[in-house]
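User: Please run a holo structure prediction.
Assistant: Happy to. Please share the sequence and the ligand.
User: Here you go; the ligand is WQD.
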Amino acid sequence: MAILLTGGAGFIGSHTSVELIKAGYDVVLVDDFSNSSPEVLNRLKTITGKEIPFFQGSILDKDFLTQVFQENDIEAVIHFAAFKAVGESVAQPLKYYHNNITGTISLLEVMQEQGVKKIVFSSSATVYGMNNVSPLTEDLPTSATNPYGYTKVMMEQILMDLAKADADWSVTLLRYFNPIGAHESGLIGEAPNGIPNNLMPYITQVAVGKLAELSVFGDDYDTADGTGVRDYIHVVDLANGHALALKHNLTEKGTHIFNLGTGNGYSVLDLVKAFEAENKVAVPYVIKERRPGDIATCYADASKAKEVLGWTAQKDLHDMMRDSWKWQSQNPNGYDK
Ligand code: WQD
């Protein structure tokens, strides 16, 4: 029996592949390389020593997905494949609704046809919207402020409704906070297309000299230093959270929701200072206007994952800063040569 990872060549998917293999699972990867690189597969072979079965194609292509299920003995699916750039989703909503929503429905229909009813879904803290107060708990109402966020809210709803309609389904919704860092080898890491939207890859690209300076989006928030506070979690901790969530999903039917965060909030300037101190490299920055749609503070109550899954984040800010820099300094152009 194998675990199918859609978007398996992506930032979270590739790191989760490594931890699942370490935990003794067989994995099968699907990716269309719309936001990832074939080079990731070579890196995964180096890290794991295994030739991981891989199928290139889109989750929108039901014939392709059906063939993957028929050629492999799939026990469960971890669904990472989705577009995730907030700004791009505002500019191109149809692209996001089609890829993320229609793609998920296509996947679920093929799973149902193939009799595979166990899914772990890559959701996001973005579903907590603008009106909830941190620390955020899984029972809070969900909402969104952009099409990307709405796709996550809608995909959660689709999965919950499916589990209500058919008691044979096991659905696990994992709400990621802010994943950063990289595998300790520096062979895999975050490689956004174009100019990074997210803070950490922007910091590392300034540090490596690809970008001139960091724009700090606002220093007038109601936080200790006025800059935005988020719950940054090491991507390897996040990957291990998936391994424990999968183990739970394989035996528990119905819908289960978990925050995957550390429960600690750090500001933008906290990260800049921690990065410079850990890696002895400068990150010049300039204070700019707030970014539309940003909230001041967002961090998790991570107690449910600890109580139910036995999972807590193990890595600290030093680890996250060190590993982010090792990846970027070893790969200044990401996976491009
Ligand atoms: C973090 C903080 C910014 C960039 C988003 C998505 C979320 C998830 C993670 C996919 C904020 C500040 C950022 C920069 C800055 N994505 N910042 N300068 O917005 O918390 O979450 O990415 O799943 O769903 O919503 O992450 O890294 O963009 O921003 O000052 O160049 O850094 O204002 O306070 P965010 P982020």
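The mean pLDDT is 97.
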